[in-house]
Amino acid sequence: MGMILPVATEAGAHRMALGFFREQANDVFAAESERLASAMQPMIAAYSRTLLERSCADLRAALTAGDLVTPYVLLDERWAIVDFPPRTLGFLRNIYRDDELMGLPEEIADWLRRIRAINPNPGLKDSYGEVLTKRRLGLKFRVIQLGDGRCYRLLRLIDKRSSDDFTPLEACGLTMREATLLSYLPAGFSNSQIAAAMGIKEITVKKHLRTIGEKLGASGKTEILYAAMTKLLEVTRQNDTGASRALIL
Q1: pTM for the full predicted model
Q2: What is the DSSP-derived secondary structure letter of residue 162?
């Protein structure tokens, strides 16, 4: 007879439980043992979460800024999820309009299963991509190797609801996150919608907008968007001119 003690019960948390079993299958746990285990559960759960967060923090520290700027899920060599950040869960809940979502939606999990069936042990040069048209969600999968030599499978989730690419403005002093935020302005996203899509707080969106405005010499979303579009056009023309000169030379 066994006794199962849940360890992680929060939304998006790793699904964990501790199992206690008697040496003899016909032995049962006394009520006192069950009460003791129940009383210890919060302490064990807190300790387990701390260990998991430390492990996840080490993994996140090894990822590049480019990997971290978009919502992601990290899997180990057994294809088990080892890092599912809360902002990723929030992003998926926003995309799927489901506040009860607790993990990867089935269509994403099914896509990963298809990749695994095709290539059970993908290498560093292997990568896969997919666009869920109905959800306007892009999926990018590849293998990354951390400094200690361990390899992980990285699934990045790309919001396709915004189509404008402002990444060239990084050359003008904008950060990657600021350029990503700008891509939501043409579609008329509100601050709260941008926050949900990027997995950040609404006050952080306001701070980024203020910083972007200072860098572009504009204030307010409309002025910022106009200034960003104007600057993007200038940068694009400069790049095109430079490419043309290189071809001539």
Answers
A1: 0.54
A2: -
